[in-house]
Amino acid sequence: MNKLIVLDHECHKRALNLIIVGIKKENAKDTLVVVEEQLKTKSQIQTNYLIEATTVGKILEHKHRLIYFKVSSIDHKFDVLSKYPSLKGS
Fold this sequence. Notes:
Elements: H1 2-14, E1 17-20, H2 31-43, E2 50-56, E3 66-71, H3 74-82, H4 84-87
Antiparallel strand pairs: 1-3, 2-3
């Protein structure tokens, strides 16, 4: 029974994560600030509910790194996903 509770908790934590690909990030800037700027300017998404953001992978000159970011609730995640077409291609 304890294993089931732990798995449910893990699924709930992962449900709040989103991934962005294709944002160029300078090393000096904070990842959360970069994500907030991109979401505000490209699609007018409210960014006060973003909790944390991290980059994944090696730094390569010809590739952008994945950016994972976490929102505070599932409703906010659906808000970002509903405005996805305005982010696409930018």
